[in-house]
Amino acid sequence: MSKAEPRPGALDPVALDRIITDIVAPAAEEIDRTGAFPRAALNALGRAGLLGLISSPDVGGRGESHRAATLVVERLATACASTAMVVCMHYAATAVVEAHGSLAVREAIASGEHLTTLAFSEKGSRSHFWAPTSTATQTESGVRLDAQKSWVTSAGQADSYVWSSRPLAADGQSTVWLVPAETAGVTIPFQFDGMGLRGNHSSPVNAEGAFVPAENMLGADGDGFNIMMGIVLPYFQLMNAGFSIGTMETATTKAARHVTGTKLEHLDQSLADLPTIRAYLSRMRIKTDMCRALLTDSLTALEGGREETMLRVLEVKAAAGEASTEVTDMAMRVCGGAAFRKEVGVERNFRDARAATVMAPTTDVLYDFIGKAVCGMPLFG
Fold it and tell me: pTM for the whole thing?
């Protein structure tokens, strides 16, 4: 087998690129305009084995981990940010199911027939996702869940939610559950209609007397915090950084294409002949490449178990999310009035990029955590 060929079961970048070219990219503008869920893309990713990317080969998955998942999200984000975010949340939730879920659900995810997502953030605790205010109560009929979840990606579209609540009886801040989407008592009070990521269906999800079997607990009662920090956070932070980098990459490419192809006819020059334009593009390129270098180092730190791994994991989303707002703002400046038209494409990147800074843990919360780490202080407490 040559080095250029993927190992059996591994990520096949050619298959991914084909799906992006044939399905994801052509649908992106319509998804943004109408808010439609990217079902066709997800079906294609499922058929190609990419929804089971991080599922174990023992259940039919590809057996990949953080690096491959991050690459997929980054590549998808260059074409459709909504599709990228849906897949990001699916992988983050799948990591928990792989560690603690039932064989049947793991096999369904690996086969590409089951889409899952996270349901951690809540109305009561906002971006402090590690501290749910929702409850779980043991009854004769099973475990009763009551909650007001906020901004659940793929709400009403996913087959299951990886769901947090206060513990049943144990000490600790939270317990994690697998909640089937069709569970009676689980409702979506209103549909998402946002500025960006318009196809990711990130809506509130409520539970009022929603019952699940006790065996749907993922991990031990009260162990939710460790699951969130040990399993979910690295996946989410790294993939979210990949999402931001993909958005920066495509905005930079579109802006460069626009200025090289647009003429100042009275001067017989392109916009790219202006030093100010080239300076903006150089800053966009540098910021994108700096964030990719940080992401690559963060992945290497995680894979090698380096001492500063947690610091890198905290830094990478904050750095990439903030840079993506700057880069997409510069793309709007570079393209001028044309940027406000849909056909150039950068205004969609501008809107989509803003999401990363306010997705929990938000950039401001991460700055606090990073500052505590730098000062040698406990992150929580």
Answer: 0.95
CATH number for the domain formed by residue range(s) 225-374: 1.20.140.10
Residue 270 CB contacts under 8 Å (≥ 6 apart), including other chains: 259, 260, 261, 262, 263, 264
- Would you state the structure tokens that stand for residue 79, as one six-digit string? 């074409």
Per domain, the residue ranges of the chain are 13-114, 118-222, 225-374
pLDDT tens track for 115-161: 999 999 998 887 788 889 999 999 999 999 999 999 999 999 999 99
Q: Is 271 in contact with 277 (CB distance < 8 Å)?
A: yes
3-state secondary structure of 162: strand
Q: Of 152, 155, 149, nearest to 174 (Cα)? A: 149
CATH architecture assignment, domain 13-114: Orthogonal Bundle (1.10)
CATH number of the domain at 118-222, out of 2.60.220.30, 2.40.110.10, 2.102.10.10, 3.30.360.10?
Answer: 2.40.110.10
User: What does 69-136 look like in DSSP terms, one character per residue?
Assistant: HHHHHHHHHTT-HHHHHHHHHHHHHHHHHHHHS-HHHHHHHHTT---EEEE--BTTTBT-TTS---EE
CA-to-CA distance for 257 and 279, rounded, in angstroms?
A: 15
For 54-70, write each residue's pLDDT tens digit.
999 999 999 999 999 99
- Give the phi and the psi of residue 136 in degrees, each rounded to 5: -130, 130
Cβ atoms of 200 and 260 within 8 Å: the answer is: no
Strands 142-152 and 186-187 turn out to be unpaired
